[in-house]
Amino acid sequence: MEGTRGHHRVIAIVARHLGNQLDDTGCQVFSEAMKVQVGNDTVFYPDVLVTCERLFKASEPAVTAPVLAIEGLPPAPRPTQPRQDVRAVSPACLPARIRPH
Fold first, then answer.
1. By residue range, what is the domain housing residue 61?
2. What pLDDT was estimated at residue 24?
3. How far apart are CA 29 and CA 25, in angstroms?
4. What DSSP string describes 31-48?
Protein backbone atom coordinates (compact mmCIF):
# COMPACT_ATOMS: atom_id res chain seq x y z
CA MET A 1 0.00 0.00 0.00
CA GLU A 2 3.00 2.29 -0.04
CA GLY A 3 3.55 4.48 -3.02
CA THR A 4 3.47 7.99 -4.34
CA ARG A 5 0.44 10.17 -4.68
CA GLY A 6 0.61 9.66 -8.44
CA HIS A 7 0.71 5.88 -8.05
CA HIS A 8 -2.37 5.86 -5.81
CA ARG A 9 -4.20 8.20 -8.18
CA VAL A 10 -3.56 5.90 -11.16
CA ILE A 11 -4.72 2.87 -9.14
CA ALA A 12 -7.92 4.71 -8.14
CA ILE A 13 -8.65 5.62 -11.77
CA VAL A 14 -8.06 2.06 -13.00
CA ALA A 15 -10.25 0.57 -10.25
CA ARG A 16 -13.03 3.10 -10.92
CA HIS A 17 -13.09 2.46 -14.66
CA LEU A 18 -13.05 -1.32 -14.20
CA GLY A 19 -15.81 -1.06 -11.61
CA ASN A 20 -17.95 1.05 -13.94
CA GLN A 21 -17.51 -1.48 -16.75
CA LEU A 22 -18.29 -4.44 -14.51
CA ASP A 23 -21.44 -3.07 -12.86
CA ASP A 24 -24.25 -5.63 -12.95
CA THR A 25 -21.94 -8.45 -14.12
CA GLY A 26 -21.40 -10.31 -10.87
CA CYS A 27 -17.70 -9.41 -10.91
CA GLN A 28 -16.09 -7.32 -8.18
CA VAL A 29 -13.16 -4.91 -8.21
CA PHE A 30 -10.90 -4.46 -5.19
CA SER A 31 -7.95 -2.14 -4.81
CA GLU A 32 -4.78 -2.40 -2.77
CA ALA A 33 -6.00 -4.00 0.46
CA MET A 34 -7.48 -7.31 -0.72
CA LYS A 35 -5.31 -10.39 -0.30
CA VAL A 36 -4.91 -12.97 -3.09
CA GLN A 37 -4.17 -16.51 -1.94
CA VAL A 38 -2.30 -18.60 -4.53
CA GLY A 39 -1.86 -22.16 -3.32
CA ASN A 40 -1.11 -22.79 0.34
CA ASP A 41 1.99 -20.66 0.75
CA THR A 42 1.79 -17.67 -1.57
CA VAL A 43 -0.10 -14.49 -0.75
CA PHE A 44 0.11 -11.10 -2.44
CA TYR A 45 -1.75 -7.81 -2.53
CA PRO A 46 -2.14 -6.50 -6.10
CA ASP A 47 -2.94 -2.84 -6.67
CA VAL A 48 -6.19 -3.74 -8.47
CA LEU A 49 -7.96 -7.08 -8.44
CA VAL A 50 -11.01 -8.42 -10.29
CA THR A 51 -12.84 -11.57 -9.23
CA CYS A 52 -16.01 -13.09 -10.62
CA GLU A 53 -16.58 -15.68 -7.91
CA ARG A 54 -20.30 -16.24 -7.58
CA LEU A 55 -20.36 -17.69 -4.10
CA PHE A 56 -18.32 -16.04 -1.38
CA LYS A 57 -18.68 -15.00 2.22
CA ALA A 58 -18.29 -11.32 3.03
CA SER A 59 -15.99 -12.32 5.89
CA GLU A 60 -13.52 -14.20 3.67
CA PRO A 61 -10.08 -12.60 4.04
CA ALA A 62 -8.74 -13.50 0.57
CA VAL A 63 -9.63 -14.03 -3.07
CA THR A 64 -8.54 -17.41 -4.46
CA ALA A 65 -9.73 -17.13 -8.08
CA PRO A 66 -8.80 -13.73 -9.52
CA VAL A 67 -9.49 -13.13 -13.19
CA LEU A 68 -7.29 -10.03 -13.29
CA ALA A 69 -4.54 -8.75 -11.02
CA ILE A 70 -2.81 -5.44 -11.76
CA GLU A 71 0.37 -4.18 -10.13
CA GLY A 72 1.56 -0.68 -10.91
CA LEU A 73 5.34 -0.62 -11.35
CA PRO A 74 7.60 2.41 -11.28
CA PRO A 75 9.66 3.22 -14.36
CA ALA A 76 12.83 1.13 -14.67
CA PRO A 77 15.95 3.06 -13.60
CA ARG A 78 17.52 2.52 -17.03
CA PRO A 79 15.83 1.25 -20.20
CA THR A 80 18.53 -1.43 -20.53
CA GLN A 81 17.73 -2.89 -17.11
CA PRO A 82 15.09 -5.65 -17.38
CA ARG A 83 12.38 -5.94 -14.76
CA GLN A 84 11.68 -9.09 -12.85
CA ASP A 85 8.80 -10.96 -14.43
CA VAL A 86 5.94 -10.69 -11.92
CA ARG A 87 4.00 -13.33 -13.88
CA ALA A 88 6.36 -15.89 -12.39
CA VAL A 89 4.27 -15.76 -9.19
CA SER A 90 1.53 -17.97 -10.62
CA PRO A 91 -0.41 -18.51 -13.83
CA ALA A 92 -3.53 -17.74 -11.77
CA CYS A 93 -2.35 -14.12 -11.61
CA LEU A 94 -2.27 -13.63 -15.35
CA PRO A 95 -5.08 -11.60 -16.88
CA ALA A 96 -7.96 -13.71 -18.06
CA ARG A 97 -11.04 -12.88 -20.07
CA ILE A 98 -13.73 -11.57 -17.78
CA ARG A 99 -17.00 -13.39 -18.34
CA PRO A 100 -20.07 -12.07 -16.53
CA HIS A 101 -22.13 -14.67 -14.66
1. 5-73+84-93
2. 86
3. 11
4. ESS-EEEETTTEEE--SE
Decide: residue 96, CB within 10 A, 0-12 exposed, 13-18 middle, 19+ buried: middle
Q: Compute the distance between CA of residue 74 and CA of residue 79 in angstroms, rounded to an integer.
A: 12
Residue 43: inside a domain, yes or no? yes
Alpha carbons 85 and 40: distance in angstroms, whole number: 21
Spatial distance between the Cα atoms of 59 and 2, rounded to a whole number of angstroms: 25
DSSP type of residue 63: E
Rounded Cα distance between 83 and 79, Å, is 10
101 found inside a domain: no
Q: pLDDT tens digits for the chain (101 residues)?
A: 567 888 888 899 999 999 999 988 889 999 888 889 888 888 888 999 999 887 777 888 888 888 899 988 776 666 555 555 444 444 444 344 433 33
How many structural domains is the chain composed of?
Answer: 1
